[in-house]
Amino acid sequence: MNVCVVKRGIFSLRECGNEASDICTGCKSPICQEHAVYSSSMVYCAICEAKIRAGQALPSATDPKLAGGTGVPGAAPTKPVTPVVDPNKPVSTTPPPAPEDWESPGWSQRWRYHYYETYSYHPFYYNSWSVGYYDDYDRNSFDVRADGSFDGDGAEAGGFSDS
Amino acid sequence: MNIGNAWSAWKGLDRQQKEFLREKQEEATLRLDEWIPHLAKIVKFDREADSIRKFLGWTGGLCLPAGIAIAIFAESAIPLVICIFGLGLLVSLWRLSKIDVPNGLNSFLLPFLVLLREETKPDAAVTLKLDLRGFDADDKLLSKNGPSSLVTSLYKDSWFSGSTLLADGASLEWDITDLVRQRRRRKTNARGKTKTKTKTKARRTFDIHLNVRGKDYAIKANPPELDDEIRQKIKQGEKRSEIRIRTQSVSTDPTVAPDVDELVEAIASAYRNLTAPAEERPTA
Question: What residues of A are in contact with residue B50 (Cβ under 8 Å)?
Fold first, then answer.
């Protein structure tokens, strides 16, 4: 089952969790009904639509930039990513969507895009474990070690080997 | 302008919504998918009513002098009918203005709730306390002093506060309070004509209280530099950490609602102090 790659949240992002029903024309990512914006015969994810409105280049399907709202589908579950704020980066001023348009689908996603661009906010990112499917014990298996391996890799971790 | 649309919008309101329009105050705990349609219906009616108010004001205002002018030249019942019609319109305008809510409900409150929905779980309860009566309600007056020629009044208007549990396990409380100073100067000139001038100045305070779980977030060792108008207090605990943010801005018109960006940025200021917790390895 393909799941929607658009993230929910503003301060800390999490998976949408919905089943994808469309493919974004811009970034070719699977998107659900809720996050799809239909424009003439095209369908865009809310982020690509926001970028089109702002006159910017569309992201690629593998763009890992979390703030863009689309990420790599099925990326390894992880602890929240530490936000990195670059004080030297010039603050852009993407115009906010009109407040009276809040009823339109994708308004909050467009607003989020404006906010990240204008205020240089870098959100935390909670991956799929945070939606309740994985518990703390499951999550520990995915913790990355200092040498880059996962718990369970190698002979010293429980004696499992590739078959 | 369509009176039929406004009437159907009014008919579509339930008892609580009509009460909110009259009282302009509400305090309740509901889910966001209940709050948003609840307030959206009020906004829909208010938009329709706004366009009607203009029509009523202009038409009612024109009918009265027109009726009087016609009465001078024509001896018939028509001028009387026109005057009564005009009066009726002005009375309707007065009644509609009693149930007018500030446009900030549409330009600030609802957009903020729509954004908050992104940050909460669908079943999360959100407690909101709204008071849109305006800063000059009697019970908001803190002090009033000075001679009658220069009266200075100080009002404290806490008009939007709330609390909820966010999807990341953090609990969020916010409060927006306007401290308004109003100066009313009265002057009588040599011909005995009295003029009154009123000046207002407001200091708007956003108070944010964010309480996060220690297993999800840690406090940064070097917190980011803050602007002059931001104050913060951080209390780090083993299980939970608290961050209090206070931002202030000054304006000359307290009736203008803030931008959604301002409140979100105040909350984000709390998040900017956080980082991912140190890796914990299983002990067993």
Answer: none
**Three-state SS at B52:** helix
Instruction: Confirm or reject contact between B50 and chain A (CB < 8 A).
Output: no
Are B118 and A8 in contact (CB < 8 Å)? yes
Q: Which of A80, A102, A107 sits opposite B216 (nearest CB)?
A: A80
Query: What are B241-276's pLDDT values in tens digits?
Result: 999 999 999 988 889 999 999 999 999 999 999 988
The pTM is what? 0.79
| CA distance readout (Å), A23 to A26, A30, A114, B156 | 9, 4, 23, 52
Alpha-carbon gap, residue A151 to A149, rounded angstroms? 7
Let me know: does A40 contact A19? Beta carbons within 8 Å. no
Q: Does B268 touch chain A (CB under 8 A)?
A: yes
A31 and A22 Cβ atoms separated by less than 8 Å: yes
Residue A65, CA atoms < 13 Å, CB-side half-sphere: 15
- Is the Cβ–Cβ distance between A36 and A21 less than 8 Å? yes
